[in-house]
Structure formats: structure tokens, C-alpha cells
Amino acid sequence: MNKAALKDISSIVIRLTVTCLLAGIIMGLAFVLTHDAKAKNEQIRDERVMYSILGYDKANPAPQTMALHTVYRYILTAGETQTVAYLVPVSDKYSFVELDLSGAFVRQAVLDADALKLRNEGERNAAVAAVVPAGTEARYADQFIIVTNEGKRMAYILDGRYPGFKTFIRVKMALDAQYAMLGFEVLEHEEDPGLGAEIEQKWFRGQFEGKSFEQLKAAQVVREPMPDELRAAITAKKPTEADAKIRADHVGDPIYALTGATISSRSVLNGNQAMVKKFAYRMDLLDKVLQAQGIKATF
Amino acid sequence: MANELSKGALISRGILSQNPVFKLALSMCPAVGMSTTVMNGLMLGVAVLFVQIFSSLTISLFKNWIHPRIRIPTYTLTIATWVTVIDLVLAAVFPAAYAQMGIFIKLIVAFAIITMRLETFACKESPSDSLFDAIGMGLGFMVGMVAIGFVRELLGSGTVFGYDLLGFKPFLFFILPCAGFFVVGLMMAFFNWIEAKYRERMAQKS
Questions:
Q1: Which residues in chain A touch residue B70, judged by CB atoms under 8 angstroms apart?
Q2: What confidence tier does A58 reach under pLDDT thresholds 50, 70, 90?
Q3: What is the number of other CB atoms lying within 10 angstroms of the CB of residue A288?
């Protein structure tokens, strides 16, 4: 190889490297500068979805006395045994409450972190790692929010993910204190446009609203068209008393499948059922333990 | 090699005589995919305008340091960098609009029109001339997208900017991707016809 070619090659390599480095620096700067705003946007969107499934919007704002309490769930693995830990808010601190798989109380500890710190996943994991014994591995599982108004429990807000027709469907769901469905919102999905993607539609999601725990557990998907009056009542822009009555009359109805997307419809029903069932089971166990141990949670 | 056109001529060339959509027929894929409504067309047009301006300026400033054998990779890297920046800024500042057109922004990297402008103009001319050329081409693309979007939205869903003008949907067909080609073709013919008429009149006068 002659010298000129070698010089050419090295010059190309150096220039490309410098270009890539510069590009990386510019993109990195843009990322750093926009990161906070993006995270804030996502949080705002999350909150808006949350309030909208609770039935609040700009015209009908949430009461001032309403408070949100986030509970985090961790899976602890020590050798062969698995236990579950909940991070429960108590006054201004968080308490670490460990339960075994049958729901019996194992132990409790106070976490050295407040609600704001725990929102960050890294700091939360560090706070949990500080209270678990050595050799135990703590893995974050999920979180839910307990909504209270004037000290009374008003709703639970859960995030969930279940398989749809193609990939996972991610939802946010609100339940009332008796685990009746207040509503849910589809956040992410990859169902077929025009068929399964219709699970986002208000008229489809609206069928679940108001169903009690028992009604939801017993619900089935039917391949029948939804009665026109019910559909009109659910999609009404300004629901009237009459609309509310029609919906109340139909609350025991089965879930009317989307035309051409029975599998997607069934996935949503099964997914919602499983989410609510699991949550109700866990919440009951946690409540029992909190009461027996005299742990004064803020909710 | 130096550019002899005035700044104004550089801008009007991009919009009229060398319009990237109607004259050069470049970047047809996004023009067809995204131009279903006026708003979509406008947003993509604005994004392309910014990417074109930043990329042209960058290449024009650094043209003496770019090795001729790796021009194209360098252009692609430059465009990709600015697209990423615009993508991040849009996501942070206009989350609602970004949710609608997020995936199309990333496609700008592969737009032929931007690479073409860098290769034929920015890498030879001064930064100020490149800036005006980029503004002209970007505006030309935006005008094209808005015009196609207007026709498709009006005929396809009977609305303009989301406002219901007709009250009914004349041809749902115009919303579908394949109709984009028909609209582009018909508008191209229309503009060529106007130009031909204009030339004819000019010839008669002289």
C-alpha cells in the first residue's frame, strides 16, 4: 500500500470520528436540555389521564381535599423463598412492610426517604436495598395509587399491561373503594388499525364503567351489536340524567365485542378481570396486615 | 462556481421554479403519507424547513473540512443530528403535536430533498447564500405539503384545519395513501399548465 492511500484512509477515519463526536455532543446537549421538560410533559399527561378516568376535567375539577398516596410493590427473593414488600406512606415517611406469599406479616422497617425521593427509581431501589438483609434480592414489581378524599378512600389507580391480539396493551385503570370499575384508559397498544385499535374508543371502554367487582368477574364477551340507546348514552358529549339511567340499566350487560376484533375485545376483558382480581386480593391482604400490626398508613 | 442569484431569487426559486414537490418530485413518500390534512402538512413542512436550514448552514460552514470521499455519510450524520435535535425539542415543547407526527419526524433523515440541497448547493456556496437557498427549498416543500393537504382534507373529509366546511365527506378516497399520488400528479399538471400559459403570453408580448 502506498503512502498517499494510507494518508487518505487515516484522514477519512479521523474526520468521520470527529464528525460523530460532534454530532454526539450536539445530540447529548439537546437531550439534556429537553429532558426535564419531556419528563414533566409525561407526568402531566399521566395526571390528566388519571383525573379523566376518575371523572374530573377542567369544567369539573377535583376537590381540594383529595390526596394521592402511592404504594410501591417489591418482590424479595432470598434463595428459594419469595416474599412481597410494600412501601406504604406513613405520615411524612414511608414504611417498608414485608409479607410472605400467604399474606402473613414478616417484618416492618422505616425507609430513609420521602415520597419525592421514592418517585425516582434509582433512589427508591437504593432505599429498599438499605433495609433488606444481605443476600436478599429486591426487585421492583409495580405501583398503585390510593386516592382519598377527606380521609376516606375514594379510588385506586392501577397501571397494568396484558397481552392483546398482537403485543401488550398498556392501560391505566381506576377502581372505587369496593373494587368496582370507575373506568380505564388504553395508553399503548399495537392492535390492528380499524379493527382491534378500536379498543381505544369511548363506547367500547365505557361498557366497563360502573361494573361492580362481581359483575366484572362474571362478565363475558358476546358477539352481538351494542344496543343503540346504550351506545348513544356512553358517547354523549354532555351526559344527561336519562343517559346515566340507561347506563345504570345496562350495567349488568355482557361486553359487546368490537366487530372484527373479538380476540382484542376478549383480551381487554380478560386482562382487566385479571388485573382487578389480583389487585383486590393483594389490597385485602395488605389492609389486614396493616390493621393487625397497627401501622398507621396515610390512606 | 459562485452563486449569481440574488437572495430573493434564491428563495423564490425554491418555492416556484424548482419547487421540491411539484417540480423536482423529490420526497414523494412523506408528501403522500403525511399530507392527509393541512395541519399535518404544515407541521412536517416546518420541521423540514428547520432541518434544511440547520443542515445547510452546518455543511456550508464546514465545507472545507469535509473529505470528498465521505461527503454523503457526513451529510447523513449532519441531517440525523439536526433531526434528533428537532425531535427532542418538539417532544418537549409541543407534546400534543408531537404525539400525532412523532414517527414522521424521524423519517426526515432519509428525505432526498435535504441531501440533494447539501450536495448541489451548500457544499459549494457561502453560508449566507446557503441559508437563503435552504429557506427557499424548505418553504417550497411546506407550500407543496400544505397545498396537497388542503385538497386532500377538503375532498376527503370535508374539513380544513379541522373545521367542518362542507358538512359531508365528498370522497373518502382522498384520505387514502394512493390518492396522494393522484393529487400530486394532478396538481403538478395544473402548475405546469399555468406555467405554459404564462410562457405563451410572455412570448406573445415580446
A1: 12, 15-16
A2: confident
A3: 14
Residue A121 backbone zone (phi > 0: left; psi -120 to 50: alpha; other: beta)? alpha
Q: Are B152 and B180 in contact (CB under 8 A)?
A: yes
Whether B62 and B126 have beta carbons less than 8 Å apart is answered as no
Query: Do A207 and A226 contact (CB within 8 A), yes or no?
Result: yes
Listed residue (B53, B177, B65) closest to B122, CA to CA: B53
| pTM of the shown model | 0.67
User: DSSP E strands: which ranges in A93-180?
Assistant: 93-100, 105-111, 137-149, 152-163, 168-176
| B-chain residues near A43 (CB < 8 A) | none
Which amino acid appears at position A115 of this protein? A
- C-alpha to C-alpha distances, B144 to A152, B4, B41, B45, B84, nearest whole angstrom: 58, 26, 8, 9, 24
Tell me the per-residue pLDDT of B17-41, one tens digit each, with 9 for 90 and over. 778 888 777 777 777 877 778 888 8
The residue whose grid cell reads 354523549 is: A236
Residue type, A229: E
CA distance A31 to A43: 18
Q: Does A16 touch chain B (CB under 8 A)?
A: yes
Q: At what angle do helices A228-235 and A241-249 cross, to 10 degrees?
A: 130
Residue of B nearest to A20 (CA): B77
